[in-house]
TrEMBL record, chain A:
This is Ion-translocating oxidoreductase complex subunit E. It is found in: Cell membrane; Endomembrane system. InterPro entries: NqrDE/RnfAE, RnfE. GO terms for biological process: electron transport chain. Part of a membrane-bound complex that couples electron transfer with translocation of ions across the membrane. The gene is rnfE. It comes from the Bacteria. Belongs to the NqrDE/RnfAE family. GO terms for cellular component: endomembrane system; plasma membrane. Keywords: Cell membrane, Electron transport, Membrane, Translocase, Transmembrane, Transmembrane helix, Transport. The complex is composed of six subunits: RnfA, RnfB, RnfC, RnfD, RnfE and RnfG. Its EC number is 7.-.-.-. The chain crosses the membrane at residues 12-31, 37-58, 70-90, 96-114, 126-147, 178-200. It comes from Dubosiella newyorkensis.
Automatic annotation (TrEMBL), chain B:
This is Uncharacterized protein. Keywords: Membrane, Transmembrane, Transmembrane helix. The chain crosses the membrane at residues 6-24. It comes from Dubosiella newyorkensis.
From TrEMBL, chain C:
Keywords: Cell membrane, Electron transport, Membrane, Translocase, Transmembrane, Transmembrane helix, Transport. It comes from the Bacteria. The complex is composed of six subunits: RnfA, RnfB, RnfC, RnfD, RnfE and RnfG. The chain crosses the membrane at residues 6-26, 38-63, 69-92, 104-124, 130-151, 172-190. The gene is rnfA. This is Ion-translocating oxidoreductase complex subunit A. The lineage of its organism: Bacteria, Bacillati, Bacillota, Erysipelotrichia, Erysipelotrichales. GO terms for cellular component: endomembrane system; plasma membrane. It is a multi-pass membrane protein. InterPro entries: Ion_transpt_RnfA/RsxA, NqrDE/RnfAE, NqrDE/RnfAE_oxidrdctase. Its EC number is 7.-.-.-. GO terms for biological process: electron transport chain. It comes from Dubosiella newyorkensis.
Length: 219, 59, 191
């Protein structure tokens, strides 16, 4: 059940965004609306899983000393393909995510997982790890964008990424008079991130203390 | 026309990759200047394994 | 001319790459614990970005556009940036140990740095001509170095402050960044 433990860890304890502080740039920038978060999360999961699988498949034939250049080239190609697909099929997402789709190339999560995991494990394990980390990232950005969007505009609005006009969910959670537009700006982004990271850190210390107490009890 | 464009793409891509790999290998071969062997950039911002500065590379 | 000055001020202060565009957060969080490392990182970034912007601009307009290969921009740029970092590190190793001690160690951190790739991509997507490209590519890393330095001076004090446990380390640094962003947003009235 080691795979499942790994998967669970990637979701909360070793959450790539709030636990390992990877991929912070894109997190802060795109979390203005939940739509962007979902779109970006999906793109990152796709790139992560595909790159993990490809790199794991060729890990035996790549000479060890040039592995980082090879990884970078593979990831850049994948991101370019996904960028072109998004431009073609979800143009609204392309405009709102803007330059952060190409910047997935230098997103620390992808290169980091490729080097730490995919280059040492089999294809299936790497794919699962990619999904786990990708989901951790997606959960993190959705949580952050939920807080930011609801506090700054009061409205939770989710549309179909492939067809702008199709609104899936539109619910006003906070009346317009009580919203805090600060959360739309960079200041709000930093504050939300800090509070969520602190919450995760507090949870981790609490969980560690509980595990320690249990271990002492067993003795 | 299509073939010419695809050929051009492969040549550009191949030459860039070649230049990068050559420079990467040359850089690995050049020794650090004397007195600089144990320098480490003082950075622990993230646990990015791909960053060559990450302490996990010290093996 | 005034347009160029406006662009410079915008890229350094108003549309600051760290506090407004959220790029370069990894070195911002990581290298800012001491003033000396912040200065080293800032200077290294300025050098790499200016040279990388020039080279990628040239490659895009002299090679990719005539051959109708604009879709290769991302791959070409990242390869150029990575090669440039290797070349610079090699060059510094061979010529000046003193320079290596102060800047060279930060060069590997710049390859996967969002700022460099972003500057190269924005130069193309905003269709800057040469003068604008130069001003933007010099202004942006100066903005980065400036914020990094200010942040490191604050963080040196933060280390000995009484911070609640969950907020220790990166979270409190983020809150400081939030306050800095608030301060910098006041510059928006200059232009």
């Amino acid at each position: 059940m080691n795979r499942f433990e790994n998967f669970k860890a990637g979701l909360i304890k070793d959450n790539p965004v709030f636990g390992l502080y990877l991929g912070i740039c894109s997190t802060l920038a795109i979390t203005t609306t939940v739509n962007n978060a979902i779109g970006m999360g999906a793109a990152v999961i796709m790139v992560l899983v595909l790159s993990n699988m490809i790199i794991s498949a060729i890990r035996k034939i790549v000479p060890d000393d040039i592995r980082i250049p090879v990884f970078i080239v593979i990831i850049a190609t994948l991101v370019k393909i996904i960028q072109m697909l998004i431009e073609a099929y979800a143009p609204a997402l392309n405009t709102s995510l803007g330059v952060f789709i190409p910047l997935i190339v230098v997103n620390c999560i992808i290169l980091g997982r490729a080097e730490a995991f995919a280059s040492k494990h089999g294809v299936l394990d790497s794919a699962l790890d990619g999904i786990g980390m990708g989901l951790g990232y997606t959960v993190a950005v959705i949580a952050m964008s939920f807080i930011r969007e609801v506090l700054s505009t009061g409205i939770l609005n989710i549309v179909n990424p492939f067809n702008d006009a199709q609104v899936w969910l539109n619910v006003t959670l906070i009346p317009a008079d009580y919203t805090i537009p600060l959360f739309n700006s960079p200041v709000g982004a930093f504050i939300t991130f800090a509070l969520l990271a602190a919450a995760l850190s507090a949870y981790k210390t609490h969980a560690d203390k509980k595990a320690e107490a249990k271990a002492k009890e067993v003795k | 026309m299509e073939l010419k464009s695809a050929l051009g793409a492969i040549v550009v891509f191949g030459s860039l990759v070649g230049v990068y790999i050559t420079l990467y290998k040359l850089n690995k071969k050049t020794p650090l200047p004397p007195g600089c062997e144990d320098l480490k950039a003082d950075c622990e911002g993230c646990h990015d394994y791909a960053c060559t500065n990450n302490p996990h590379h010290e093996r | 001319m005034s347009e160029l000055i406006t662009l410079f001020v915008t890229s350094v202060l108003i549309n600051n790459v760290v506090l407004n565009q959220f790029l370069g957060m990894c070195p911002f969080m990581g290298v800012s614990k001491k003033r000396s490392s912040a200065i080293g990182m800032g200077l290294a970034v300025i050098f790499v970005i200016v040279v990388a912007a020039l080279i990628t601009y040239a490659i895009y307009y002299w090679i990719l556009v005539p051959l109708n290969l604009q879709y290769m921009d991302l791959i070409a740029f990242i390869l150029v940036i990575a090669s440039l970092v290797q070349l610079t590190e090699m060059f510094i190793k061979k010529t000046s140990p003193a320079l290596y001690k102060s800047l060279g160690v930060y060069l590997p951190l710049i390859t996967t740095n969002c700022v460099v790739l972003n500057v190269c991509l924005v130069n193309i997507s905003n269709s800057y001509d040469f003068a604008h490209m130069l001003v933007y590519s010099i202004g942006t890393p100066i903005g980065f170095a400036l914020v990094l330095y200010i942040f490191s001076t604050i963080r040196e004090r933060l280390d000995i402050a009484n911070v609640p446990n969950p907020l220790k380390g990166n979270p409190i640094a983020m809150i400081v960044a939030a306050i800095m962003a608030m301060a910098f947003s006041g510059f928006a009235g200059i232009v």
